[in-house]
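REVIEWER CHECKLIST
Item 1: Sequence provided? yes
Item 2: Single chain? yes
Item 3: Sequence as submitted:
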Amino acid sequence: TIADVSMLGWVRNLIGFSGGSVGLSPTPARQAERRNAAAMDRQVTLTASAEAAKAVTAVTFESYDDAAAIRDDLTGRIESAELAFADAGDDAAYQALRNLRLAVVRDVTARGGSLARVYDYAPAADEPALVIAQRLYGDAGRADEIIERNRIRHPGFVPAGRALEVLTDA
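Item 4: Structure as written out by the authors:
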C-alpha cells in the first residue's frame, strides 16, 4: 500500500545516518563526544536498516518491476552501510547487515518474482481507456488500472502516441 511504501521511504533514508562532525579539539570531552556521536550514528543505521527490512515485508507490489526497484534501492543502501562497518572493523555489524540484506533479497524476489512486468504501450489513435484495456487484456474492467498507473486525466480521451505504462498478464 501507499502508506507502507511511504514508511519504507522515510526509514530507508536513515540508513547511513551521520549526525555531523564534532569539533577537532583533542580534549577528553571532545573525544568522548566523538565516541558518543559515532555510537549514535551506528545505532541509527542499524535500527533504520532493520526497520526498513521490516517495512518492506508489508509492501504489496503491483508488478515485478516495482518489487525489483524497491529491492535494489533498499539492498544498495544496506550494502553501503555494510561496507562502511566492514571498513571500520565492526565485523558483528557487517555480518548482521549482510544477513539482513540477503533476507530482503530472498523475500522481495520470492514475492515479486511471479508478478506482471511493466511495459510501454502507445495507442495508435486517440481512444478511451476502456478500449485500450479491452484491446490489451480482453477486459475493459482493467481500464481503472491503466488510468491510475498513468494518472490519466480524461479516461475517455487518451491521446495517440503517448506512452502508457501497462502490465503484462501475469
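Item 5: Key structural point noted by reviewer: The first strand starts at residue 118 and ends at 121.
Item 6: Recommendation: ____
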